[in-house]
Amino acid sequence: xxxxxxxxxxxxxxxxxxxxxxxxxxxxxxxxxxxxxxxxxxxxxxxxxxxxxxxxxxxxxxxxxxxxxxxxxxxxxxxxxxxxxxxxxxxxxxxxxxxxxxxxx
Length: 105
Fold this sequence. Notes:
Elements: H1 2-62, H2 64-95
């Protein structure tokens, strides 16, 4: 009976330790996710501010419609470049394993 009680106590101690570890890991994951979210938000605001600064600079020189078109074209070119890079990276990750092998292909 003593062994059974010790085994049950050991099991619950293990559950408690795993719960503490999970909680600390979950807190770290939430902290990282919030940092990523607010960092992305600040980056988005910075890109918009840079686009507006370019528009404000170029509008008196080439006119408001041409400045708006140029700023929009710059945003589109940057977005398409990022999408192309992400697609290329995703394709490489699908064809190669994490260890550098060809993934069995």
